[in-house]
Structure prediction request, 253 residues.
Amino acid sequence: MTALLRTFLFAWQFLTAIPLSRSTHDAKSEELAASMSWYPFVGCLLGLLLVSVDRLLAQVFSSSVTSMFVMLLLIGVTRGLHQDGLADMVDGLAGGRTPQARLAIMRDSHIGAIGATGLFLALGLRFAGITALPVGDHIAFLIGMPVVGRWAMVVGAFHATYARSEGGLAQPFLAHVSWRHLCIATVTAGIVLTLLLGPWAALCCLFIGAAFVRLSTVWFHRMFGGVTGDLLGATNEVAEILFIVIVPAVLFR
Prediction:
């Protein structure tokens, strides 16, 4: 199996619940980091899946019901990892006074009231954003949404310190992700967004998105002492929501 195929499979298996192979579970840290180059491409495949289901269900159900099914499909296919990360982050911020206390709260498998509230608001915004997408550009934004979210995780992981001294699931990614991985992911996201929205809209999305994510990374270091897998998941969730809520409003006002 070639190195490119291995890293693609690692990205697919890490980001989705759909199995493609059983023979690639023993990944080196460098391969896990290299798999991040594929994140926007995996996001594009997920977007195409969303569009296919959206077009199929739209023949039977109303736009709001279809939007709900599309949202639930994305959550199910990704095992709800990003929603879990967002809820954990909100709980940590609400209950901890120090970075160590916030990390300890985030590690608790139980969701608190504040985390549940944050998750509810995020899901509500996502649903409202999908439902309100412009009819003519509905497909473009459904494809672009997971692309932007997964690209944002690569931007957030680059040159970031892992927050937990004892290590964790995201540590190999953060320790070895390089400029090359970031550039490949950015070029991929840029090509997809250009095809979907045009060059200027794509450039604005990447520029503003990169600035937002890097500022978030700085803030994560201040509040949590670094970045964790949960925080990268939260980054994906927020980036996707902002993309489908703000970009259509700016482009089609």
Q: What stands out?
A: Residues 35-251 form one domain. The chain is about 75% helix and 0% strand.
